[in-house]
Amino acid sequence: MVKTQMLSFPIRVPDGMQAQALRLLDASRLAINQIITTLWPQLDAFAGERAGPAWKQVERHLLTRSGHGNRQERCEMEQAGRILRAQASRKRVFEAIVPLLSEGLIIPAQGKRPARKDHRQINEQVRTLRAQLQDAGEDAEAFVAMTNLMAQACNWYLQTGAFPSTYEALQPVPVLSVGHLTFAGDDGMKAGQTYRARIELAPGCDLESRQERQLASLSLRLRTPDDQGKWSWGAWSQAIALPPAVCASLAQGALPQAPTLREIRGDDGSRVAVLDLTLEVPARYVSPLEQETRVLGWDWGVRSLITVSILQRPEEGDEERSRQVSRPVFLDTGGIDGRQARLRREIDRLKACRDRYGQFVKEAQAAHQEHGVPLPAHLAGWQQRVREYDARISQCWKSYERRNRELAHLASNLLILLALLSDCRLICGEDLRTLKTQGRGRGVRGRFRNWRNNTTVRGELWRVLKYKCHLLGIRARQVEARGTTHTCPRCGEPAKTYASAAPEDRTQAISWGPMLCCSNPECLWKGARDYAASLNIARLGMAFLLTYQQTRRYESYRVTSSEVNSCLYSGQEATLLLPSQGITPRPREGKHVYYAGWSYTIALRTSQPREVLAILSTSHLRKDVLSSA
Predict the structure, then answer these.
(1) Keywords for this entry (predicted)?
(2) Of 237, 266, 282, which marks where a domain is finished?
(3) Are 554 and 477 members of one domain?
(4) Per-residue model confidence as pLDDT tens digits over 180-237
């Protein structure tokens, strides 16, 4: 059976169909919210068997319909059913963590500092519960849901003074605030009764490269209500030119699946309808684990985005020690760090201004309701300022998230490129779900590092990496990262981190120090802590690989496990600073060396020869490597 991967491509609905599409989304949103509200008391019914479409499960419990037509109602029930199923799963996780909810998860108020959640205690309680579930043979993969729900319950305690006893008390009814409708309940593009679409392929030519390629266009037709609420078919849209990525996937045999129509709201209140075109793309063949000999390990760094190292399976006579076959590669975020830090600082400033005027509005309204004091003349102006600050905060967050997505795609592309060039089909990275940086840090840079560690770029990176590895026939595996940054990769003994490797700077250990120095007199290894962590993560991946090749069992290890062997190390050159690409495609003289092919504000630091990085940075080589994977 051929493996496939679902890919979604957002396409803006033509201007001539925007009004129709928005009316369809408004009508379906009201119907979906009505279904969710009606079936919310029966949430437990959606926690059992989930075979088949979600709309069939909703249909068994729903008594009233929207009257929008059979297939339109199916699509609305499908969307509502998916939401209810997801909420039912969260409710089961909440019931598992209820015995853990106690005041020990709350740090009491200290002076001017208010009471707050104890993230360390929350993570420790979740790890303990997860281990108990694993020992009992139950599902213990909902680590993120456990952590999020426990943090949500603690927020509830901080607001009300008591922990919630039921999931329904903790979670409000999850109604849609914007339109979102899947067409999975319809009969397909050709025979659909809510939408119809056709994709036309034609040969074309790329004007830049002057190479022949396949062109594709999409035509769309919707059944929507008019201003009086009467449903009817609209006209076919004009041909929508599809992006080159969609054309290439269709040329490789991708099959279109049921699309999704959704609404995007701008900061100024504007509304735009977008169609998510879903393609089932064939994935590459994944070689058996028995044939794998190398593991790529990467670490989420404190001072760099990721650090990469590759280990080779031990040969006979190597005393079961893996051999390092690559020099370390550090991917720094360069100027993006400063931009994101300034953006987060601006968000904090805007929030403070918004809260100030919001407090004025709240006090004025409270005085008017309780004591009959007339509303001040400036009330309307205060409310307008609160709305303006909310709009500016939303703009900042959107810019912040766009940069995070760019970083995720860049880092995943670099990992896959290095893996393919090293003939490696197993990529191991730290389990980022356990990472939670405490405190605010010292200075702007320290505060931003904590912000970056705790933001969604970590989850976005794994999401992008997983689907790209699946398409290219590469395994992506998460490993337990605890202890990897404070363990010597050469001897496996615990080691401390310092501000510098110089003897005069090693008088006092620093938990977040950039350099790791081993105190074992038989080893005395020293290097960047992120470099050591990448080697230790690769060691965990190698232990997993060797265990499977010997026993055909999938086993996960910690860095302290006896099955995790140390790796052979040979002295390497000092790291060479290789900042981001410039306009010219070749290195130039000077302190910094620039390479084409990387994002403008990204820096690479590695001890690889300059000629190697110059070749890797060319776009043609990356395309050839990815196409021949």
Answers:
(1) DNA-binding
(2) 282
(3) yes
(4) 999 999 999 999 999 999 999 888 876 666 777 788 999 999 999 998 989 999 999 9
